Amino acid sequence: MTPKIRIKTALEHKEPDRIPIGYTGTPEVNNNLKKYLKITSDKDLFKRLGVDYRFVFPEYIGPKDLRSEKNWLDFPGKDIWGVERRTYKNAYGEYQEICKHPLKDVKDIEELEKYPWPKIEWFDFDNINKQIDEFEEDNEYWIVLSGASSFEQAWYMRGMEQFLMDLLVNPDIANKILEKIYDFSVSRIIESINATKDRIDMIWFCDDVAGQTGMFISLDTWRKMIKPWAKKYYSLSHDHGKKTLYHCCGTVEPIIEDLIEIGLDLLNPIQFSAKGFPQPEILKERFGSRLSFLGGMDVQTVLPFYSVEEIKKETEKLIKILGKNGGYILQTSHNIQPDTSPENIMAMYDTALKYTY
């Protein structure tokens, strides 16, 4: 099977020739792996790991003092939304963290209307075809378009504490911010689809509404303020014949039924160490016939700390349980962190490449 057919088969809840594979790692991990494997390019790294999908994003050609959201992990500064980040180092590497929320002090709708929101002409959509052409020099991959965030992008701009308050006491302001994000994001998605015709397979949406111990907002508030926007995004994707992928870290279990109801196809990152998250057997039993999963290999409690042999067994366990009758793409529960050895990482990927149902 080609990578595209492999993922398509899994999403149809059928078992493909092998388990489909995904990958996300920090820049430090990417460099460590390439050095360990004696590989020089990210393209060759993805091929070696057996990654079946490829992400695309329209090329940013806007004001030079701003940057797109594509590489926020790598570059500090102000992005197209006005959110500013700077580099914070830790014991193993560094992350770009928000240091300025541009809408923090906004008091009314009029101020939001006057705010300099990003413009669609800041992006070159034809460049997506060039990205796909490069990927398909050696295979036919499942192509995923980076789509949008609602809750996450809103609090990036407003500040977490202030936006959580807005959802309860300033719902008009919260909805106007979400509307502005939606209007731009939808335009960018549609332009991307129009430029590439049938070459995009899936739209990726990212909205962390949960943490390690529970959701950031009540279920009622999520259903009233966030769910309607998610439904619009998913409906747009399906209207254009594209599958939907949703990333939400943490204990997302309370909203899984709602996500299925509004048309989610693939849930990520499947964080089994989060409090209250259903374990593999239960997750598969409750939702596996109606929803597919991407992730599962825990980067907090398993991958950095288990032995190579233990990781091989954990990989086989995830494939056996979640991959039964399809509906599963093996990946980690978040970006692999720099405290994880290349030997442990390759134990996971080599096991997956060799595993047969």
Give me some keywords for this one.
alpha/beta; seven-stranded parallel β-sheet; 42% helix; three-stranded antiparallel β-sheet; 13 helices; 357 residues; TIM Barrel
Report on the structure:
The chain has 357 residues and is α/β, with parallel strands linked by helices. It has a single domain (3-72, 102-354), classed as TIM Barrel, CATH 3.20.20. The chain has 13 helices and twelve strands. The strands form three sheets. It has a seven-stranded parallel beta sheet. It has a three-stranded antiparallel beta sheet with strand order 3-4-5, with no helix packed on it. The longest helix has 26 residues, at 171-196.
Low-confidence stretches: none
Find the CATH topology: TIM Barrel
**Biggest sheet, open or closed, and with what strands and sense?**
7 strands, parallel
Number of DSSP E strands: 12
H and E order: HHHEEEEEHEHEHHHEHEHEHEHEH
What's the domain count?
A: 1
- The neighbouring-strand order within the major sheet is 1-7-8-9-10-11-12
How much helical structure, as a percent, in the residues?
Answer: 40-55%
Q: Any idea of the CATH class? A: Alpha Beta
Structural class: alpha/beta
Roughly how many Å is the radius of gyration? 20 Å
N- to C-terminal separation? 15 Å
Categorize the overall geometry.
Answer: globular
User: Mean of the pLDDT scores?
Assistant: 96
